[in-house]
Write a structure and sequence with these properties.
This protein is mainly α and about 350 residues long. The protein contains 14 helices and no strands. It is elongated and about 90 Å long.
Length: about 350
């Protein structure tokens, strides 16, 4: 796969070339020549060859479904059909950039706590494996009864030391099993559905997914794509299996003559603000514009949530990890302090 950020950057350059009056094949040649990624350059070369052989651009891109999403193909096809490919590529580039920015916000909010927790767990394991056993040898020389907290820490260190090899051996089959399970769509769907209900992380993921869905659907409707055709594409662009199934349900309701906002309200997976703005857009015939405004509001809300979660997680991690390390140190030094009082 081509990284989404790299694809968005390439699309932005492509739209700029088309708007500058460069024809399609020379634009592809320039993009291929200036591509810094070998896989992207090879992909552009194959697309250019297909176009030179007489295929429409949308069909040439459709030959590479792993690289170009249904959103990409739908908007390129709409631009070709209407004769406004340059304007459509500009709109597509903006949509891809917004979607990638939303993904980056969520990743930045989750990466820092994950890295800190992993590093802190590694430090605690090193203390239990190498630091605490040194104190254990000293305490054995005392021959006196140790405090309860010290005995607990020493027992934990002994358990970790004895089970480290078995833990490492069990980690390999567990990692293999986890990877095999993750590759199954049913298991991914179950896991991602549970993630939406997690406190703290769930609202972040839900807001990001819904904002990406609204951005995509707004761009598709503005491109002139019918709502029944745009909904499945927006569901795939959301990147979440729960919302892909919801969009299939919404498409059936709309095809039967129902309103999009009513179907969204029945699912319970969309914010009330988005449902109300969709209802207003349907009544006034400005659904694409209202979806774009709702997506902008949800993006701002996501930024506020990310800042709030970061401000809460950082001190919480420091307190918890500092407390764990402090408990170990106090448990190790407490017998030494008592011995000093005796003498």
């Amino acid at each position: 796969r081509i990284r989404p950020g790299l694809l968005a950057s390439m699309t932005r350059q492509w739209s700029t070339l088309l708007q500058a009056g460069v024809s399609l094949v020379p634009a592809l040649q320039m993009l291929q020549r200036n591509a810094t990624d070998a896989a992207l350059a090879s992909l552009l070369g194959r697309v250019r060859q297909d176009v030179e052989d007489g295929l429409p651009l949308s069909q040439a891109l459709a030959s590479h479904p792993w690289q170009f999403s249904p959103l990409y193909l739908s908007m390129v096809h709409a631009g070709e059909t209407a004769g406004i490919l340059d304007a459509m590529m500009e709109r597509l580039a903006a949509t891809l950039e917004k979607n990638e920015a939303l993904r980056s916000r969520v990743r930045s909010a989750l990466t820092y706590p994950a890295v800190v927790i992993v590093l802190a767990a590694a430090v605690l394991m090193l203390m239990l494996l190498y630091v605490v056993p040194v104190f254990a040898d000293v305490f054995n020389a005392f021959g006196a009864e140790l405090p309860l907290s010290t005995r607990i820490v020493l027992g934990l260190s002994q358990t970790v030391s004895d089970g480290a090899l078995w833990l490492a051996l069990c980690a390999l089959p567990f990692a293999w099993w986890w990877r095999r399970q993750w590759q199954q769509p049913a298991w991914q769907s179950h896991w991602q559905r549970r993630t939406l209900d997690w406190p703290g992380i769930g609202p972040l993921v839900r807001t990001s997914v819904v904002a990406r869905w609204a951005h995509t659907l707004s761009a598709l409707l503005a491109a002139g794509i019918p709502l029944t055709e745009a909904l499945p594409v927006a569901g795939q662009a959301s990147g979440h299996p729960v919302y892909e199934r919801i969009n299939a349900h919404l498409r059936r309701r709309v095809a039967e003559g129902g309103q999009l906002s009513v179907g969204m309200a029945h699912t319970g997976r969309f914010p009330d603000m988005l449902v109300q703005m969709c209802a207003t857009g349907e009544d006034t015939g400005t659904l694409d514009a209202m979806l774009g405004k709702a997506a902008a509001l949800m993006t701002e809300e996501l930024d506020n949530r990310v800042r709030a979660v970061s401000s809460l997680i950082e001190p919480l991690i420091i307190v918890v990890l500092g407390g764990a390390i402090g408990v170990i140190l106090v448990a190790m030094y407490l017998p030494i302090f008592r011995l000093g009082q005796v003498f």
